[in-house]
Design a protein that fits this description.
- The protein has 232 residues and is an alpha+beta fold.
- The protein has a single domain (2-16, 59-213), classed as Immunoglobulin-like, CATH 2.60.40.1880.
- It is built from three helices and eleven strands; from the N terminus they run αβββββββββαββα.
- Helix 1 crosses helix 3.
- The chain starts with a helix and ends in a 19-residue tail after the last helix.
């Protein structure tokens, strides 16, 4: 089971980059092999419809829970692993950061039982880290792990007690510091409405994905028969 849990967990990580990568500039796809449509009288092509980006490895929103989304990665089996996702906005309504949450595979050694990935803009002061406070609870600080072209990433772990606080809470307040204004704080509020139902849906989807990915028990090869007991 450990192998299948790891596989599902790796697939879930694909959710991290997909939403933000859609905002980056990519090279246009090669047109080699595209069949030309019949030109108009003035020689203009009207284009040929192509398939959408809905194949294996693509992401989609399976359900919404208030401000949270259940985002999943398509697999060949059709039983897809998921994460709980939220797009965080500032007080002016600008898209600022992304937060994804997931339970860790069963049997994972503690103390963390759940994890989260937070993506901040590249203009974030990394040495200040990110702050997180659940309602009036004790604030905690988390370091940024690495940066890529899509942003800077902090990877968070939550104990069972902290997950319970998230389920019972009203808001999680996240703070980051702009690189160009180190004396200022950007406050982002993540509503916890729908969090419990969303995490339950994600856990159920991932349990199903793990079960589907589990290798079948070894069976005798085709045509093979069990050896007859030796004559005593």
């Amino acid at each position: 089971m450990a192998t299948t849990n790891t596989t599902a967990f790796a697939l879930m990580l694909a959710l991290l980059a997909q939403p933000v990568l859609s905002q980056t500039t990519e090279e246009p796809p090669a047109t080699e092999g595209v069949t030309a449509d019949a030109p108009t009288a003035d020689g203009l092509s009207m284009g040929v419809e192509t398939g959408g980006n809905d194949g294996v490895g693509s992401t989609y929103t399976a359900a919404t829970f208030e401000a949270w989304e259940q985002r999943c990665v398509r697999t060949a089996s059709g039983i897809d692993p998921c994460q709980l996702y939220m797009l965080l906005k500032d007080q002016e309504g600008n898209n600022v950061a992304e937060l994804t949450m997931f339970s860790l595979p069963k049997g994972t050694e503690g103390p963390a039982v759940a994890g989260a990935t937070f993506i901040a803009p590249l203009e974030t002061l990394l040495t200040a880290g990110m702050g997180l406070q659940i309602d009036t609870g004790t604030p905690k600080a988390y370091p940024f792990t690495f940066c890529t072209q899509i942003g800077c990433v902090a990877r968070l772990g939550f104990t069972a007690e902290e997950v319970d606080q998230l389920k019972k809470g009203a808001n999680a307040v996240i703070t980051i510091v702009p690189y160009v204004a180190p004396d200022e704080r950007v406050t982002l509020t993540a509503s916890l409405k729908g969090f419990t139902a969303g995490l339950q849906a994600v856990d159920a989807a991932n349990d199903a994905a793990d079960a589907a990915a589990a290798p079948a028990e070894a069976a005798p090869a085709d045509g093979a028969t069990e050896a007859a007991p030796a004559n005593e």
